[in-house]
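Sample A.
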Amino acid sequence: MGKRAWTIIICGALILAIGMGMRQNHGLFIEPMRMELGWQLGVFALALAIQNLMWGVAQPFAGALADKYGSRPVLLVGVFVYVLGLVGMAFPQGPMMLHMSAGVLVGIGVAAMGLPVVLGAVARMVSEEKRSTALGIASMGGSFGQFLFAPVSQGLINEYGWSIALATLAAIAALGVFLALQVNSKPGEEEHHPSQINQTMGQALHEAFGTNSYILLNLGFFVCGFHIAFIVTHLPMFLSTCNIAPEVGATALAVIGLSNMAGTYIAGVLGGKYSKKYLLSIIYLSRAAAILIYTLMPITVFSTLAFAVAMGALWLSTVPLTSGLVGVMFGTRYMGTLFAITLFTHQIGAFFGAWLGGYFYDLTGSFDGAWYVSIALGVFSAVVHLPIKEMAVKRETKTA
């Protein structure tokens, strides 16, 4: 990989650290905000559920714009909207404002700074042989951000309160402008792919939705979103119900991020050597096992940190494999758009993961129902990946 490719990989990873990594610690703010504002847990759960849903809705548009105009302008707009959302979240004047800022604006901002835009840029810069590894390295950015901003967020909350903490994070996020300027990957730089000869975006979309393997990949990625959103949103609150200090929740989220830096990189490397669909099945089945074991054990600091290590290794390790499968099937010309649609399904799962956690708690006073659903979905996703055909889609050519 050349110098330009490495620049885009590193800057893209740092953008993901600011966007995805920072927002994965928003669960740390729920309890102090709830205690000070006096709102029900469901208000915050709905805000973060809206965030995940808007993230998903906006991603196909962000991916399509990046495929057409390049990644840089989309990333710049994303940074602006993301910072605006964090500022609004820092000073909410009511539940509706919280839903608009933490939900709508942050969701749209993260989408424009997200995986389809960044990984689409990275995929265009590297050969197919090195693509899985490059995607794994770039994807590590989200995990690095989670690892970095979990203790930073908790420290700022403890020292200055949740409002100033969020305003400080908004200032840090504004630095993403300088990183976005370095990601100058443009459409047309991708390698030739047999399914892309004279293909329009409309044809690419028709082809994708007519491919059963792509549909199955989307169904499986729904589960990834559910798991991640439920845990990052509700693990700190869950631990507080078990009389465990809030700092342990921040530490657990940081450990997940640290562990997943290794897990994502290893998944990317393995994806270049072995079947991506079987690796994904193993990951989802392992998630179900980890959640089952954790919920059956007494909830302690040790068991929580052990769970964080296990889940961290499996956290975003799905991303280079899932995006890699999209590249294998359809090439990289419209990868930003097609992977964004897959991530939309991921974010529908994230909506339900964030919302159902709060719903179950307000209804029963417990998170048990959401844990059980997480286990069942893990098994479902492990099974649904097995029939996927891991090969380039063949297009029919018409002759006069």
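Sample B, a different protein:
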Amino acid sequence: MGHAGQPNIILVMADDVSPEMFGCYGSQDAKTPNLDRMASQGVMFKSAWGSALCCPARAQIMTGCYATQTGFWSNGFSIPQSDGSNNLFRHYSSFGKLMQDAGYTTAVAGKWHIGGAEPPHAKHVGFDEYCLWEGPKELSRLPDSPTHRGAWEDESTPSRYWHPCVVQNGRLVPTKKDDYGPDVFTDFLCDFMERSVKSGKPFLAYYPMVAPHGTRKGSPSTPKYGERGYLGGNKENNRSHFRALNDYIDVLVGRLEEKAKALGVMDNTVIIFCSDNGTASIAKSRGTERGCRIPLIVYGSGIKKRGASDEIADLSDILPSLVDFAGKKLPESMPIDGKSLKPFLTGESTKHREYIFACIGSTRLVRSRTHLLEVVNPILGIAEGRFYYCANKHDGRGYKRIDSDPEHRQVRRQFSQILDKYPGLTKQHPYFQTKKGKRFLELYTKPKAVQKHLHNHKDYQFYDEI
């Protein structure tokens, strides 16, 4: 059962967006007043990491573990566990289950998409309710195998935006042309919050958003501010669509905050905002820092006003933080890579952790407050990676390449010890002898894919990558 003092948690994870899209991270044209205010009144981490792709980032935030444990290295690439399965939550506890066990009512809305993992309503996954954008495979598992009659993004992908495909608590929701997915999910969570407050139990509202991921057919040109638009393939038009989508998620975060205020519980509620990985095409999937760098903002009850912080964090820290906020301890047998942010967020501590870590495909990355090691990837011929001194910089500007600089040799040795703690993959791994593994390597090692993975987008090559 929950007990007095357990704060409600609203955890929002935007889909595919880098920090520079937000005003608080330096954007001059962003309309993100709610998140900007939360960043200034709470804590905004200048350097926070997820993974560079959706599935491994979601596995990391849900379990508090890196891919070096879970085997969830990339989209469509998860190394089976000892029992031969990819059922993530049969081997690793989700924060949903841990919070449920701590007395919370739990709900998830938006985009699930953890390949190989079981659905959120499975008993050991731990969500009491869900409202998710789903596809034909998920619909086929419902009673009577219903068919989506709304809009489609392509031949196999139902719409996540206008006239979306939504499954709520085991049934297909009959949406209309004017129904907008992000609104549907936000309304669901607002209703869940209200019912939870009436029940007298603390709530965890987890919102892995469908937006601003891509500018797919059916996405609005200016969400809820103007007429609906469809993509015409024009890059500038796509940018304006994406900007509008991202600005609208700020509106939705504000709506959740206003609901908590209306319910009289904002003085006992913590809002956590992040994304899973960097913006598609210019960051996502790359083995560089930009691929895994995400916004991370924490605001609300008991959170010390620190504003922009030089402390570092990654998505593995979310699970232990939630359990800590719930006033519980992690099981001693639970193999967590993350560390609770609560002491730093509440002012009990002035520091959080000494390094953060990320992996994507067969690439590993390490960062301290001042140094960065990226694209460590023996399979792609860069076993030592690239080593930089960042000073107090966080966006790539001003980084100095220091691979052989004796002044930084001690830090490089420390980073090597961290890599030893989180061993990477080589071509000799048994998975790469399987049909799926061979296919992954075939695509992964194509020259064009290698060039993209090992380097930043041409518009963001701010430091030496040679």
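Observation for Sample B: The mean pLDDT is 92.
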